[in-house]
Amino acid sequence: MSKLEVLRNPKQRKLLFSAGMSWLFDAMEVGMISFIVAALAKEWSLSPGQVGVLTSINSIGMALGALLAGALADRFGRKAILMWTLLIFTIASGLSALATGFAVLCALRLLAGIGLGGELPVASTLVSESMPTAERGRAVVLLESFWAGGWIVSALIANFVIPEYGWRIAFAIGALPAFYALYLRRAIQDPPRYKNHTKLQKITFREKVATVWSAPHRRTTLMLWILWFTVIFSYYGMFLWLPSVVMAKGFTLVKSFQYVLIMTIAQLPGYFTAAYFIERFGRKFVLVVYLTLTAISAIAFGLATTEATILAAGICLSFFNLGAWGGLYAYSPELYPTSVRSTGVGLATSVGRIGGVLAPFMVGMLVQRAVPISLIFTIFFVTILIGAAAVLFWGRETKGQELAES
Predict the structure, then answer these.
(1) Are 79 and 15 in contact (CB under 8 A)?
(2) Range 187-196 average pLDDT
(3) How many Å apart are CA 97 and CA 101, to the nearest integer?
(4) Fewest CB within 10 angstroms: 16, 157, 280, 335, which?
(5) Model pTM?
(6) Where is the Major facilitator superfamily (MFS) profile domain (predicted)?
(7) C-beta neighbour count of 211 within 10 angstroms
């Protein structure tokens, strides 16, 4: 089977690109927040603590969204929940453009987060269940690569729209993907694996959680929860603060946006190399190696002071961190049976989003207390290594294995 067969099969290609575009819009929304808060901090005179609250509240919504959408997708189908989550976050984004104060904006970002957090685990489960075994991991990593596209779009908006027209226009642009939900309604279908498993809808949420924590899945669930927490904690702690951290190192707002755009482009080869290695060497290899190199890059970025070292460390950070994200989304749905697959992934994602709540807030508090950037990034170095160790010692390899039905 060709390594690119997933892109040659018209039906699978259509599914991958349809789900991928919704993923791109999700990433664009998250990415714009990191740029918008840097501009808002100036316009509204926000303290580092308030910036931390604004970025964290989005993650609170994402935790709720992942928990709810995962369970609902097992009951009502992957397609329906994917469309509704897309609509929720795009409408909330459009309303954010009209926010008149900090509290109103925080409330709207909470609502947007619910849609954002719900979409990701549902999309990855849908694609994972719809692809042949030999191409499943690569397909989900390629799905994840659309995340880099969304960040690139958000960085372009930050460079060319926000400085000229302001942050409200950026939020308004984030509302446009609502029209894409109309296309999704006809473009994708629930996977046959889900349709054939009709007894799914008779299982209560409590029974699904009990299954996830039952003896056959307990170690897997613990490993996944640690992995998701450490990855999301480090990602949102580092990447939502990237423009602000670059400014703290002595560069202007516009310059920081340009640097982050360059770093963001490095995400694409990170995904593509991970897509190659994941079917060649396995899921555990990609996760452990890419997370370890992410940790090293985090230390290097924290210590960087010159233009060259900041860019080099930032490029490596984006390359390896987002490659690991691709492995994470490919790996997680493979660890549970069909009846609880979306619930299991949603629970793990929801626990991870707690890290997304804590990290931006923590960075805001530490920056406000003048803690050195190098020390802050040392915290992320240790956190990422804990996630890599959990996979190394507790993870099981799923490369080449059929998805479990029950």
Answers:
(1) no
(2) 72
(3) 11
(4) 280
(5) 0.79
(6) 15-399
(7) 19
